[in-house]
Design a protein that fits this description.
The chain has 330 residues and is an alpha/beta fold. The protein contains nine helices and nine strands. Strands 1, 2, 3, 4, 5, 6, 7, 8 and 9 form a nine-stranded mixed beta sheet that branches. The protein is globular, with a radius of gyration of 21 Å.
Length: 330
């Protein structure tokens, strides 16, 4: 008789319960919304709850409710905008993890499973994944992949493998629910209202949640979604507006947190990612004698200039507001 016994396998944490939240605001994205919901319903790991939050649009609310029986549909009961809609979703959920998918994105079958796997580590408070742009009219030749964040997608320069990051991107992100509630949710003075090209409410929340809970924010590229990029977002006008709006938004994040936290990722992005992209564009333009690399180089410069200007304007506005507030209080 052998005295040896089989080793006891290590205990594994049970899979956390999950609520997937899809926020919508316009009937113009109806087909995209239906595709997003169907992709959630087709996950290899089915969520415990699927919530569609409608942002102050009664007709759309009724249409979604009638078209999607069995899906919980609720109106945004906060101020109009994406941050308020997301807060409404968090408050209506009861699950351990809340995952967000944009209404114009389609999740791969293993998306939710990829996100939830990371929560086996109790120190992880947020997880995001890859967002692949699907251009309606193809990528414009002047649009550099380093600026794919302009259209809400993973951009060149992000990690190729699982990594700890400062923040996740809104089209494909998840959080432990309790830390989000404890931190006060998404800041509703930030983020999109309709088509206004600003954002960063997820960045600001990631900073607050990670600092408050002492946890990690993780990027897991295997949790992938496709993000529809319509024709209007492939215009140079939208590109400039979005870069300027990003600068304004980062200034607001710096005012809510700290300048070091708000710009830590951006400093490395400019110093390494954009400098390398500019050098590659110059070499391609010289070697291939084509206009496209020069156009991308010009876009890099314009994008950085507009974002920097937006940030400077935002900081000046905040300083002026603080001065006025102090004057009124004295």
């Amino acid at each position: 008789m052998s005295l040896l016994t089989e080793p006891t396998p290590p205990a594994t944490a049970p899979r956390p319960s999950a609520c997937v939240i899809v926020c919508c605001y316009t009937e113009r994205r109806w087909d995209d919304l239906l595709a997003a919901v169907r992709s959630v319903q087709g996950q290899s790991v089915v969520p415990d709850r699927l919530l569609v939050v409608v942002d102050h649009h009664d007709a759309l609310h009724h249409r979604v409710r009638d078209a999607l029986p069995g899906v919980q549909v609720v109106p945004n009961h906060h101020v109009r905008g994406l941050a308020g809609a997301r807060n409404t979703g968090v408050e209506h959920s009861r699950e351990d993890v809340v995952a967000f998918l944009d209404d114009d994105a389609v999740a791969g079958p293993g998306w939710l499973s990829g996100l939830l796997t990371e929560y086996a580590d109790p120190g992880v408070v947020a997880v995001g994944g890859t967002i692949v742009p699907r251009w309606s009219d193809g990528r414009p030749p002047w649009f550099p992949p380093e600026f794919d964040w302009v259209v809400g997608c993973t951009y060149r320069g992000m990690p190729a493998e699982r990594a700890r990051v400062r923040n996740v991107i809104g089209a494909n992100m998840s959080f432990r629910r309790e830390p989000v509630l404890a931190a006060g949710g998404f800041a509703e003075h930030l983020g999109r209202v309709g088509t206004r090209p600003v954002g960063c409410e997820e960045t600001e929340l990631c900073i607050r949640v990670a600092e408050r809970a002492g946890g990690e924010v993780v990027y897991q590229p295997q949790a992938s979604v496709d993000h529809h990029v319509p024709r209007e977002r492939g215009s140079f006008r939208y590109f400039r507006a979005r870069c300027y709006g990003e600068g304004l938004s980062k200034a607001a994040v710096a005012a809510s947190t700290t300048q070091a936290s708000a710009l830590r990722t951006e400093r490395g992005y400019v110093a390494h990612v954009l400098v390398r992209a500019a050098a590659v564009s110059v070499r391609e333009a010289i070697g291939q004698r084509r206009a496209a690399p020069l156009a991308r180089l010009g876009t890099l410069v314009v994008g950085l200039a507009y974002a920097g200007t937006g940030y400077a304007v935002g900081r000046l506005r905040h300083a002026a507001t603080e001065t006025t507030s102090r004057g009124a209080a004295s």
